[in-house]
Specification:
The termini are far apart. A hairpin with a 6-residue loop joins strand 2 and strand 3. A 3-stranded antiparallel sheet has the order 1-3-2. The chain is built from 4 helices and 3 strands. The longest helix has 20 residues. Helices cover 49% and strands 16% of the residues.
Length: 126
């Protein structure tokens, strides 16, 4: 029985799975969207929503907890400077999943995980 087992294994060992999800969350915060398979998108969506909620608190401890989960400084800056201000009025539902197509090789469903609010792009001078 799988009672209270809420992690998706994604067919990977634990360290590889954690690295995959963290890197995809970083790509989501940097670009604003991510194309991947449905099970991976659901795992990424779970972590991304928790990080956005945590970053919205704005205190130093919350920011450090977010920094611990994200692999690069650039992704943390994307979260704090673009994602958090765009989602300040919302309490949940920061991301959405849209179905794109079935992959030709193995028939896996490809989806686009994107942030609900359009992000303000940083200017080229920064």
């Amino acid at each position: 029985m799988r009672h209270k087992k809420n992690k998706r294994k994604l067919g990977l060992p634990t360290d590889q799975r954690v690295a995959l999800v963290r890197n995809q969350v970083a790509a989501l915060f940097e670009r604003g969207y991510l194309n991947t398979t449905l099970p991976r998108a659901k795992a990424v969506q779970s972590l991304a929503e928790r990080l956005i909620t945590k970053a919205k608190r704005g205190d130093l401890g919350s920011i450090r907890q977010c920094a611990r989960e994200l692999p690069t400084r650039r992704s943390l800056q994307g979260l704090l400077r673009r994602v958090v201000p765009a989602t300040q009025t919302e309490n949940s539902g920061y991301t959405q999943i849209a179905r794109l197509k079935y992959r030709r090789g193995d028939g896996a469903l490809l989806v686009r995980l994107s942030l609900n609010k359009p992000l303000a792009r940083e200017t080229a001078g920064k």
